[in-house]
């Protein structure tokens, strides 16, 4: 049934089911990676053989607000027992929000042999599947890592400025979009000086793409969600949220499930744009217009 | 500003072990978060939600005879948040209200967790301590 749903997506091979993962525990060519918002969830029990990659403490450079250098990323992969010959399957909490983020970061370094386990950690546990506390010890690898490509899948603030008027998707909550608040409901204040959205951005909260059980909605449902948002095939699309995590989920949907060619994630997102000197914002529920330049 | 003995002992426990083992200690605390007494479990609305945390957690402080009792509730899928609450409860519950009020608000930074848990996540614990102190202050 999952496989039938997957077959309708633009890139069916980007998703695997919980059953598929259960069948590939111990497969030497598959690495299962758990990536969560909660830094302790992996320790409470994880899919047997899975390794943990934490977005806060491992994927981000500790000093510069940026991702790891290619050299540091290579060292991380080596430590985790991952290399380019493996199929990498990500899963995590919160409807795979952080798993999608990790998958996107891996893609910046040319790691394309990656998949998400549809439904993530919640579906696995809801199905009563096995969890273990045994930390997987994988032999160190010597991975090939390309220099990070920051142009194809990633957008910076100047790219966004240049793109105003083209499809721009704000995937935060409606309250954050309109400017009532700068953080997600029930999330901590993360320090943007202005509340609102980037002019011309349409609001499509990321969670619309997920079912109750954390799986992705069907292709037809996803097409409907994006039907009237101005996000059309063939155009440059940029997605953003607060720090680039929720928009990774949307990036995955647009890129791999709906098959848009050019989709970039603006990871600076609102914590950067909402505090940048000299850029316009729009307040309220309408997208607003691009300022004349 | 001073640190109650129990809380100081917890700080020592964390900082005495290698960084790589501190997550496991936090997990132990998480698993030992005391259950809510039935009278509170049946009335979750009495507990105050801590919005600084990324996961749902609610806390309540009751001051009786000058001593503060602290209770908290958080779901199992939020082990970090449970761990933070458990540290504060084990370190502070039963202490005189005045002692609770004197805990430095930047106490979470002293646990040696910034690098392995991240400063952003630790903010949730600061939010919890702030609420515990405010509720305590309102009852003395």
Rg of chain B is 14 Å
Question: What about the largest sheet of chain A?
Answer: 5 strands, parallel
CATH class wording of the largest domain in chain A: Alpha Beta
What is the H/E string of chain B?
Answer: HHHEEEHHHH
**CATH fold descriptor of the largest domain in chain A:** Oxidized Rhodanese, domain 1
The number of distinct structural domains of chain A comes to: 2
Structural class by secondary-structure content of chain A? alpha/beta
Helix content of chain B: 40-55%
Strand order of the largest sheet of chain B: 1-2-3
What's the topology here?
The complex is a heterodimer of chains A (293) and B (140).
Chain A: H1 2-7, E1 15-16, H2 18-23, E2 30-34, H3 41-44, E3 51-52, H4 55-59, H5 70-80, E4 87-91, H6 97-108, E5 114-117, H7 120-126, H8 157-163, E6 168-170, H9 174-178, E7 202-203, H10 219-226, E8 237-240, H11 246-257, E9 263-266, H12 269-273
Parallel strand pairs in A: 1-5, 2-3, 2-4, 4-5, 6-7, 6-8, 8-9
Helix pairs in contact in A: 6-11
Chain B: H1 5-16, H2 19-31, H3 38-41, E1 48-49, E2 58-64, E3 67-73, H4 79-92, H5 97-101, H6 114-117, H7 119-137
Antiparallel strand pairs in B: 1-2, 2-3
Helix pairs in contact in B: 1-4, 2-4, 4-7
Description:
Chain A has 293 residues and is α/β, with parallel strands linked by helices. Chain A has 2 domains: 1-127, Oxidized Rhodanese, domain 1, CATH 3.40.250; 157-274, Oxidized Rhodanese, domain 1 (3-Layer(aba) Sandwich), CATH 3.40.250.10. Helices cover 30% and strands 11% of the residues of chain A. Chain A has helices at residues 2-7, 18-23, 41-44, 55-59, 70-80, 97-108, 120-126, 157-163, 174-178, 219-226, 246-257, 269-273, and strands at residues 15-16, 30-34, 51-52, 87-91, 114-117, 168-170, 202-203, 237-240, 263-266. Chain A has a 5-stranded parallel β-sheet. Chain A has a 4-stranded parallel β-sheet with strand order 7-6-8-9, with helices on both faces. In chain A, strand 4, helix 6 (97-108) and strand 5 form a beta-alpha-beta unit. Chain A starts with a helix and ends in a 20-residue tail after the last helix. In chain A, 44% of the residues are buried. Chain B has 140 residues and is mostly helical. Chain B has one domain (5-139): Sufe protein. Chain: A (Alpha-Beta Complex), CATH 3.90.1010. Helix content of chain B is 51%, strand content 11%. In chain B, strands 1-2-3 form a 3-stranded antiparallel β-sheet. In chain B, helix 4 packs across helix 7. The longest helix of chain B is centred in the C-terminal third of the chain and has 19 residues, at 119-137. Chain B is globular. Chains A and B meet through helix 3 of A and helix 2, helix 4, helix 6 and helix 7 of B.
């Amino acid at each position: 049934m999952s496989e039938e749903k997957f077959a309708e997506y633009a890139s069916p091979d980007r998703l695997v089911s919980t059953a598929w993962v259960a069948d590939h525990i111990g497969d030497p060519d598959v690495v299962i990676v758990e990536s969560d918002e909660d830094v302790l969830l992996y320790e409470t029990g994880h899919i047997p053989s899975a390794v943990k990659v934490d977005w806060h403490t491992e994927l981000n450079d500790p000093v510069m607000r940026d991702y790891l250098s290619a050299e540091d990323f290579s060292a991380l992969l080596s430590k985790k027992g991952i290399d380019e010959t493996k199929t990498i399957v990500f899963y995590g909490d919160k409807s795979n929000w952080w798993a999608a983020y990790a998958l996107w970061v891996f893609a910046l370094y040319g790691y394309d042999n990656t998949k998400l386990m549809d439904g993530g950690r919640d579906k696995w546990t809801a199905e009563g599947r096995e969890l273990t506390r045994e930390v997987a010890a994988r032999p160190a690898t010597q991975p090939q890592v390309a220099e990070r490509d920051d142009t194809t899948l990633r957008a910076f603030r100047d790219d966004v400025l240049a793109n105003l008027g083209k499809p721009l998707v704000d995937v935060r909550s409606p309250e954050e979009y309109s400017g009532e608040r700068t953080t997600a409901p029930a999330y901590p204040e993360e320090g943007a000086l202005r509340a609102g959205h980037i002019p011309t951005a349409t609001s499509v909260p990321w969670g619309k793409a997920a079912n109750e059980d954390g799986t992705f909605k069907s292709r037809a449902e996803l097409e409907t969600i994006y039907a009237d948002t101005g996000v059309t095939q063939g155009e440059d699309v940029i997605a953003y949220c607060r720090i680039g995590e929720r928009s990774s989920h949307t990036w995955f949907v647009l890129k791999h499930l709906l098959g848009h060619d050019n989709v970039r994630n603006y990871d600076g997102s609102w914590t950067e744009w909402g505090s940048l000197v000299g850029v316009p914002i729009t307040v309220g529920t309408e997208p607003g217009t691009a300022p004349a330049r | 500003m001073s640190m109650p003995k129990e809380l100081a002992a917890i700080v020592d426990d964390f900082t005495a072990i290698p960084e790589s083992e501190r997550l496991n200690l936090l997990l132990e605390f998480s698993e030992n978060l005391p259950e809510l007494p039935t009278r509170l479990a049946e009335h979750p609305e009495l507990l105050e939600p801590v919005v600084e945390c990324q996961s749902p957690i609610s806390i309540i402080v009751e001051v009786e005879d000058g001593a503060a009792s602290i209770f908290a509730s958080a779901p199992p899928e939020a082990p970090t948040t449970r761990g933070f609450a458990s540290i504060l409860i084990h370190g502070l519950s039963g202490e005189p209200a005045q002692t609770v009020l004197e805990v430095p608000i930047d106490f979470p930074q002293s646990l040696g967790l910034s690098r392995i848990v991240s400063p952003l996540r630790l903010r949730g614990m600061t939010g919890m301590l702030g609420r515990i102190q405010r509720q305590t202050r309102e009852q003395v």
